[in-house]
Amino acid sequence: MATPLPSHATDRKRFETGVWTLWTDRLMTVVIKFGGAMVITAVFGIFLFILFQVFPLFLAARVTELKSVPLPDAKFTILGVDEWGAKPFLVKPDGKMLFVDFATGKESAVPVDFGDSAPHEITAAAINKREQKIAVGTADGKYALVSPDYKSVAVDGVPSVSASPSASAFKDIGVPGAKVLDIAYGDSGAQKLVVVLQEMDGKKSVSALQLKRKHSLLGKGADEIAGTFDLTALIPGRPDNILVPSTGDGVVATTEDGTVTYLGLDPEGKFQPLQSFRPFGDLGDARIAVADFLFGDVSLIFGAVGGENRVFSLFYPKGGSVRLFGQTHEFPKLACRPTYLVTTLRNKAFLIGGRNEASLRYATTEAIRWQADLPFTATNAVISGKYARILFLDDERRLHFFALDDPHPDSGWKALFGKIWYEGASEKKWEWQSTGGSDDFEPKYSLIPLIFGTMKGTLYAMIFAVPIALLAALYTSQFLDPRLRGIVKPTMEIMASLPSVVLGFLAAIYIAPLIERQIPSLLLVTVGLPIAAAAFGWFWSELPIQLRKFIRPGTEWLVFIPILLGLGWILWSLGPAFESVAFVTTDPGTGKKVADFRYWWPAVTGASFDQRNSLVVGFMMGFAVIPIIFTIAEDALSNVPGALKTASMACGASRWQTAMRIVVPTASAGIFSGLMIGLGRAVGETMIVVMATGNTPIMEWNIFSGMRTLSANIAVELPEAPHASTLYRTLFLGALLLFLLTFAINTLAEILRQHLREKYKTV
Amino acid sequence: MNEPAPGKPDYIKIQDFSFHYGSKQALFDIRMDIPEREVTAFIGPSGCGKSTLLRNLNRMNDLIEDTRSEGDIFVNGQSIYDPHIEVISLRKRIGMVFQKSNPFPKSIYENIVYPLRVAGQNSRAVLDETVERSLKGAALWDEAKDRLHESALSMSGGQMQRLCIARAIANRPEILLMDEPCSALDPIATVKVEELIHELKKEFTIVIVTHNMQQATRCSDKTGFFYLGKLIEFSDTQKIFSNPAKKQTEDYITGRFG
Ligand SMILES: Nc1ncnc2c1ncn2[C@@H]1O[C@H](COP(=O)(O)OP(=O)(O)OP(=O)(O)O)[C@@H](O)[C@H]1O
Ligand SMILES: [Mg+2]
Prior knowledge:
The complex is a heterodimer of chains A (763) and B (258). Chain A is of the alpha+beta class. Chain A has 16 helices and 35 strands. Among the domains of chain A are: 131 residues, Methylamine Dehydrogenase, Chain H (7 Propeller); 305 residues, MetI-like (MetI-like fold), CATH 1.10.3720. Chain A is 37% helix and 27% strand. Chain B has 258 residues and is an alpha/beta fold. Chain B is built from ten helices and ten strands. In chain B, the strands form two sheets. Chain B has a six-stranded mixed sheet with strand order 6-7-8-3-9-10, with helices on both faces. A four-stranded antiparallel sheet of chain B has the order 2-1-4-5, covered by helices on one side. Classes of the chains: A alpha+beta (763), B alpha/beta (258). The structure holds adenosine-5'-triphosphate and magnesium ion. Magnesium ion binds next to α1 of chain B.
């Protein structure tokens, strides 16, 4: 009686899975897996690339022996080298210069023409590296200046270095006929100073000779003696080493008992004792074995007889008004008594050593770039001008050429993250300053101010954005009329895609000047509006229901917004009046009483006031972050099951109670995600910070000063950074930090989010 | 203890009440008087508007967008749409158990005391007492007493429903609205809930929606039969089930429907 079933209802095939279904399923599985793997590979690839760029920053120097050349049996008073380390020279007592050619390994003795037929025994010599001039002193109390005159010429395409030394004539200096034990030469171009340490009958004396270049009509002028000084009386004790800074306006003498005397030329052209100190006064044996100026000539390196090694720099002590030497760095002790100390013209590195111990150190970062026990006993050493070769002279008169590979001597953990006592500073600091005006400027690569700036910018942005975004999301999802919600939500989403360069532009051109003039108004509005809003809410709830019922729930803003706008306008216009009452101070320029917040703030708090400050950044970055937090939080809040809200309302909870006790906790995982994504955006935000702050890498929380963030730093400096330089790699390190920071934030956020989701999961 | 005074026969008075979801009318001119301290059952085929009417009694339908009502409902002589009445206090007087259980993502304890907490009651002793009494009332005490601070979501479906009953009676409302409270319960729990209803009706006015005819006969005093948004018949339960006045009612009760 039952109607026969159609064949498709009885066919066994109806239980089979279609071929296409299976194929599509398999194909999509593969495609999705491949896609996932590609994403992971790409992210990992970026990470590896950055890591690869960054890691040379943390490498130590590599020093390898290239060759050694035996030298003729003679006494040498000095070892010098050209920029390339290809043709070092030694000065022999007879006044001949011995040049050693690296490529051929041959040495050649070149007589220097001092324009004086009488032989003089050279007993002291000093190189002024900056001027490439050698000052030599003789056993009979004379001095001369020699230039090696290096030239780099290309011979058959291979660069080779040639030298054609020339010299000035021997002239008398200091005590006539007294043997010169040590000589020093400073030359600032306009002012030259030759200082000699002489000995006569066991009595030591120090004399200085000031030269001035007189320009003649024939172009190159001749040096004329501008003054002679006997400095012996100014130096307490028996001097054994003298140094002159390249500025030629001071003398540093060390004495046999380990005292350092610093003399300066005063404006009247007289030497005055400025300072006398004992670098190793706290040690049992305070004697100084080696001493020299560090590149830049504002720091002195000392090696004690016991192997201790300290650096003293000129700086204004706290509260002081005279630049004096103070200890800024201490290095690990050498095992032996140091016998040589050489510096370079490239950076703040120096090589100190004695016997077979040699240590290449970087003064600024207190880092040991390289240290080794040499297979020979070095008596002298030199670093090439390009910081690419180290040459050692051993006690068997062999000259050893070493290749020095140390592209980032000024880098390392300490330089990047540690507090460092930079030259000229009166304390240890974290500082970022990648470029400076002068040649001997030392770049400061501390990332701490940038990390600080990133945190500061993020903090101010979040302080501004989080309350607004979250309250707006709560209001929109729980209280606003649903039809309006349909307008507000997409509008905010469009705002989220506003290019930040537009926001930054607005901030710099419009907001910053506006805010600068209207801080008191802004203060009034920031404090007044929330209070007014809360008061309005209370007042509304107290209104009799007969009045309230005319306004449908969800449209209260129709009343609320005009009132608040009106109030905001009133508060804003009250700003100037408020300023004239509350922010009166004396104008530092004119000394008159003025009502100006821009002067009042620095006067009262001591902190600075910049036009492009954190307030502007926080405000504008807040605008970039608000839509993100808002959208995600609003989604989370709206997705709370209606059944929960209904249940809460049925229990007699008000809308606010329902929102705060049920909706917000249930949506907390989503809200948290929104906060974290907003935070990530704020941390990585670049253009707004670049444009709206002065990009000053300072470390202070002052809301009226600027900042420099990691991302802005990359944007600002990368175009100027030479490829593979320390700066370049440090910028990549900044990128890596950002990468890790975001990674850490996201991981933490995910863990917390999972926890919250577990806790408030709904059925 | 004195026998309570006989309840008002028109404690809840529904007057020509119509209700629209947007353009769709769900209730048509409902007129019924629900007596005080008695159990009134709503029966009828699915989609006929039982839940809709129930939800209107404590104005839960206000929360649904784009709805409209005509007519009036009086509770104890006062219109629930009276602007003097705060809808929140109305809901505090009327407890509700929903068709689908909806515990909060909180602990069992916090679920039950929620109505007290939102009313500002935070005294530990009061809350503890309420939890125990309500759980016992909802026949859940034995199962839940050792896990009061575990998440309510770790319970079974039937337990959750009883938890919702416990929550609804926690603040001792005057009226209890129950929308198919037993649909997810096993027979034993069902019996317990029915006993609870018997117990509660001494003090509360109870309105219960059910698809279970036996349940309606067992525990209700009055029964209303709804069909397509209209109240077809409303009288004593005994009369409806033994001698219905309308053909439709009889068809539905005897299962000859649809
Ligand atoms: N939120 C809503 N929006 C629109 N229409 C609704 C809504 N809730 C219910 N309805 C409609 O109103 C009518 C009555 O629904 P109601 O939920 O009251 O039925 P019911 O009698 O409780 O059915 P059941 O026994 O299946 O629970 C149905 O046709 C339904 O489609
Ligand atoms: Mg229903």
